[in-house]
Structure formats: structure tokens, C-alpha cells
């Protein structure tokens, strides 16, 4: 069981060592910006921390071996891994130095290029300012013409709205007159319906009186002794 843990620990040590070497190569080739270099260095620090911990774990496993021969073998491996880690740290410092020099050189070249093109840029700026001024004048004149047209359209719209308003008022008065006529017609119809009901009631009463009279006469003639 202990051999399995030893093999896993050795594999992880080799993995971290290879990752550190690859990151150091990336740092040596890094030409900026500085935040990219900082990010690479953070990754290297994290890998070194893991590698250091696994080397300590391997050393502890070696000390716990029952056989003296196995113990010596593992302790020698630990010593070799620590030497390799120190070698990687040296390479890491050199890579950072090379990267910083390359970044500084590129920044200086950029500054020189900017200075050389300054005169040309100033000349172009004057010409562009003159053209811009002409364009602005033309644009202002165009805007003035557009505003004049808008004012004229607004006046026509106000006139149209005024005419429409008078038409609406006149239509409203006509609706009021029609409403009065309709109400008068409703009153006349209601009055007529009431009169018609009264006439029907009088006719019904007259018929009832007539029938009562007829029945009385028939009763007297048919049953004179009653």
C-alpha cells in the first residue's frame, strides 16, 4: 500500500516539474504586457508551492520505510528533486530578467515611434481642423434651412388643427340639437302609449258593463221567479 502512495507522489513531482519548465519557457518568450508576465509568475509560484509540498511528503515516506535500503533510495530521490527545484528557480529568475528587458525595449521603441510621427500628426491635425470647420459651417447652414421648413410646416399644421377644431365644435352643436329632438320624440311616444292603454281599459270596462247588462236581462226573462 505504501508503494502505491510513493509512486503517486513521484508522478505528481514529475508533473509539477514539467509544468514549471513549460511556464518558465513562456516567461522567457513573453514580450508584454506586464500584466501577462505577472499572471505567468503567479502560476509558477503556485506550481512551486505544490512541488515543494510533494517533495516533503516523499521525504516523510522515505523516513517511514522499514527497509534501510528503500529508505536511502527515497531520500536520494528527494535530494535530487530538491536540486532540480533549485535549478528551476534559477532559470525562473533568468527568464524574468529576459522578459523585463524585452518589454522595456519595446516600450522605448514605441515612444520613439510616437515622437517621430508627432510632426506629421500635427500637420494632419491642422488640415483636418480646417476641413472640420468647413464641414461644421455647411452643417449649420443645412440645419438652418431644415428648421425654417419645420417652422413653416408647423404653421400649416396649426392652421389645419384650428379648422378641425371649429368643425368639431359645429358637429357637437348639431349632435346636441339632434339629442333634443330625440328626447322630445321619446316623450311623445311615451304619452301616446299611455293614452292607448287608457283607451283599451275604457273599452274593456264598457264591454264588461254590456255583458253584465245582457246577463241581467236574460236572467230576468228566463228565471222571472228568482
TrEMBL record:
GO biological process, one term: retrograde vesicle-mediated transport, Golgi to endoplasmic reticulum
Main location: endoplasmic reticulum
Keyword Endoplasmic reticulum among UniProt keywords: yes
One GO CC term, this protein: endoplasmic reticulum membrane
Residues covered by the Sec20 C-terminal domain: 132-222
Entries under InterPro entries matching the protein: Sec20 (IPR005606), Sec20_C (IPR056173)
Alphabetized UniProt keyword annotations: Coiled coil, Endoplasmic reticulum, ER-Golgi transport, Membrane, Transmembrane, Transmembrane helix, Transport
Subcellular location: Endoplasmic reticulum membrane
Xref: Pfam families: Sec20 (PF03908)
Coiled coil: none
Membrane topology summary: Single-pass type IV membrane protein
Protein origin, superkingdom: Eukaryota
Transmembrane segments: 201-218
Record bears the keyword Coiled coil: yes
GO molecular function, one term: SNAP receptor activity
Family: Belongs to the SEC20 family.
PANTHER family linked to this entry: BNIP1-RELATED, VESICLE TRANSPORT PROTEIN SEC20
Protein name: BCL2 interacting protein 1
Species in which this protein is naturally found: Astyanax mexicanus (Blind cave fish)
Amino acid at each position: 500500500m505504501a508503494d502505491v502512495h510513493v509512486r503517486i507522489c513521484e508522478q505528481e513531482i514529475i508533473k509539477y516539474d514539467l509544468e514549471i519548465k513549460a511556464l518558465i519557457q513562456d516567461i522567457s518568450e513573453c514580450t508584454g504586457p506586464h500584466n501577462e508576465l505577472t499572471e505567468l509568475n503567479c502560476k509558477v509560484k503556485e506550481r512551486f508551492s505544490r512541488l515543494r509540498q510533494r517533495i516533503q511528503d516523499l521525504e516523510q515516506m522515505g523516513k517511514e520505510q522499514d527497509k534501510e535500503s528503500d529508505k536511502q533510495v527515497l531520500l536520494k530521490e528527494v535530494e535530487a528533486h530538491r536540486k532540480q527545484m533549485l535549478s528551476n528557480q534559477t532559470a525562473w529568475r533568468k527568464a524574468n530578467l529576459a522578459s523585463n528587458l524585452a518589454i522595456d525595449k519595446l516600450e522605448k521603441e514605441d515612444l520613439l515611434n510616437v515622437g517621430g510621427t508627432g510632426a506629421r500628426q500635427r500637420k494632419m491635425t491642422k488640415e483636418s481642423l480646417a476641413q472640420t470647420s468647413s464641414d461644421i459651417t455647411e452643417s449649420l447652414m443645412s440645419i438652418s434651412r431644415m428648421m425654417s421648413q419645420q417652422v413653416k410646416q408647423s404653421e400649416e399644421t396649426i392652421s389645419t388643427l384650428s379648422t378641425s377644431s371649429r368643425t368639431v365644435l359645429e358637429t357637437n352643436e348639431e349632435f346636441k340639437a339632434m339629442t333634443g329632438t330625440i328626447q322630445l320624440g321619446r316623450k311623445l311616444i311615451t304619452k301616446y302609449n299611455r293614452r292607448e292603454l287608457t283607451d283599451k281599459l275604457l273599452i274593456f270596462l264598457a264591454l264588461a258593463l254590456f255583458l253584465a247588462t245582457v246577463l241581467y236581462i236574460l236572467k230576468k226573462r228566463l228565471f222571472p221567479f228568482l
